[in-house]
Design goal:
202 residues, five-stranded antiparallel beta sheet, three-stranded mixed beta sheet, single chain, alpha+beta
Amino acid sequence: MKLLKIALAIAVLFVNLTLAQPSWADRPKFSKNPDYIEVTKTIQELKKSAEGTIPADVQRQIDELEFQKAAIESGTAWGQCRNESGGNLAIYGTGSEESGNSNQLYFLANKQTTPDQWDCQGVYLPADVKVTGLDKTGAVAVKIMDGTQLLVKKNPDTSELELNLPNAKIVKPGETDWFIPNVSQAFLDSRIPNTLTAAEND
């Protein structure tokens, strides 16, 4: 009977080791993450260009980038977007980390946040939408780094959108493989939000 119990315990242990994901597995290599590479390069360029004493505004940029770099090193390989714009928000994303979808446009409803692990990579801003602190003449996208929580909200006094990013990275049509259409905010508001549905299907 003792021998049977030992054999059963070994069998359960063996099945557990072969089926369960090992807890000692390495985290994904952050050094190959495109955002990590870009942040590291930008930090080096800022330090190199500020020979000698670093101006306060450049040092603030470096500190913020160092913080983003640490966030990526911690293993957070996705961004999150929150919509408080009063209408639909077109966002760029790959869906969940497991889905493997290529970067595409989704629609996030007002007062909603993309789920954890769902990689929001940026937002689309139509030409007819004014954004505080952004000088844009047409439709653009704003790219966010992994580990960033982007909040897009409408200023009730000016009706302009505000982003909680101190240094928003603008992407213009033709600069990357991101699809940047020329549509209005009214068109975006006519779309059915699908971000949370896409997350449930992944």
